[in-house]
Amino acid sequence: RLVLGIETSCDETGAAVMDETGLILGESLHSQKEVHMKTGGIIPTVAQRLHRENIGRVVQEAMERSGVTQSQLSAVATTVKPGLALSLGIGLDFSLNFVKLHQKPFIPIHHMEAHALTVRMFQPVVFPFLVLLVSGGHSLLALARGIDDFLLLGQTLDEAPGDTMDKVARRLSLIKHPKCSMISGGQAIELLARDGDRLKFLFKPPMGAHYDCNFSFAGLRNQVTMSIQKKEVEEGVEQGTLLSCVNDIAAATQHTVASHIAKRTHRAILFCKAKGLLPSCNPTLVVSGGVASNQYIRKTLKIVTDTTGLHLLCPPSKFCTDNGVMIAWNGVERLREGKGILSHTEEVNYEPKAPLGVNITAEVK
Ligand code: ATP
Ligand code: FE
Ligand code: MG
């Protein structure tokens, strides 16, 4: 059986053809990152236009590279939630036309479920396992109990860590920094932090008085912005032209983000253990999302999993960020279990907001 996966939830147009074992037969990805970097954030109508311009070619490329014909496909799997309405709409319209034309079953996919399950393409991780998703758009901790069964333990109350680091990087005009052209804000922070002293700036850890597994990064961003402003005034330089101590600010920001993520993850592990939610054999923490490629954050998480006896697993970096492959894989998992496969698509719509499973308060004092 063969699945075509299509992703357009945010700023990546992705497609992939995969066989039932998870083998990638062909894939194609078009990223809009560069365009959005120039405007300092995603403009939904621009994202929509770029998806529209690229989706046909991206799907065709993935199909051609796979050597699979439309008639050989068993199903088409496409992200329908959550994400930007205008972006989701392009992928869904394209897919519904495609399945109608070629008379194929359709499998609607939840983008965050796909991120959570990607690891199973590479390792036979068994349910239940704990998953931490940290990216530019999300920050959440969940217990994966099955391919479509998640317990949401915590999520961000304001912005996601990748977004925070992107905004700090923009405030520091790192795009003009000789070492940081053509990389994301998060990557720039990681790179500069290597030469910085995090103890030169002390930022207050977020949510110190909350004993749950939720996240918050907006307060940290405010603190960092205020410190940058103060330094600019002290040094008598224009906004966004600070040169001294940029490395130290990066290091302190990264450290505070890493500690906050680690603290919440540690709590989620303790909560799951106390409630008997994790298996005694090979309990696992899966980490994914663009921010998961940060080595400092990974090392901090490794300390948490080592001290609590969990295995730490991350999909290869390329599969931590948005792509068509993870959507195809989710389609394969659903096809195997016969879950959520539609032969009538009249009722299918996209959902910009969609929680990942049942939300519970995971408190440990
Ligand atoms: P989502 O997948 O939630 O819709 P997204 O598309 O913005 O959101 P990803 O593509 O998974 O997220 O990841 C991009 C984010 O990851 C950016 O915010 C970027 O700054 C951040 N990021 C990438 N590399 C690193 C790194 N090495 N350290 C920290 N952050 C990073
Ligand atoms: Fe994503
Ligand atoms: Mg993306």
Automatic annotation (TrEMBL):
Its cofactor is a divalent metal cation. InterPro entries: ATPase_NBD (IPR043129), Gcp-like_dom (IPR000905), KAE1/TsaD (IPR017861), TsaD (IPR022450). GO terms for cellular component: mitochondrion. Its EC number is 2.3.1.234. Keywords: Acyltransferase, Metal-binding, Mitochondrion, Transferase, Transit peptide, tRNA processing. GO terms for biological process: tRNA threonylcarbamoyladenosine modification. NCBIfam families: gcp_kae1. This is N(6)-L-threonylcarbamoyladenine synthase.
